[in-house]
Predict the 3D structure of the following.
Amino acid sequence: QVQLVESGGGLAQPGGSLRLSCKASGITFSTHWMSWYHQAPGEERKLRADISGDGGDIFYADSVKGRFTISRDNAKNTADLLMNNLRTEDTGVYYCTATSASGSRYWGQGTQVIVSS
């Protein structure tokens, strides 16, 4: 079955950095867009970044442009989100998703990020 497992969350200070990683199995990884969503406490999930199957197309939400970098390694079936210059409003749960060409979307279980001094 499809599994997406996120890792790398934790506690960071404002201005600090964290790298999230998503390991996929059960899918043809290179044919899926990979995305990272953020859910702040009490809010809905919002797209933060995504990347096409070959890595040639990348999207960032305005709130993370210049701070976050999404990447993927199709040989390892992983998609990473490097988060620099973290802000307190980046606190929340980060979810990895994989979306097929037909529109089927799979979600990971999420990883918690807390940005606090």
Observations:
- The chain has no helices and eleven strands.
- The radius of gyration is 13 Å.
- The chain has a mean pLDDT of 97.
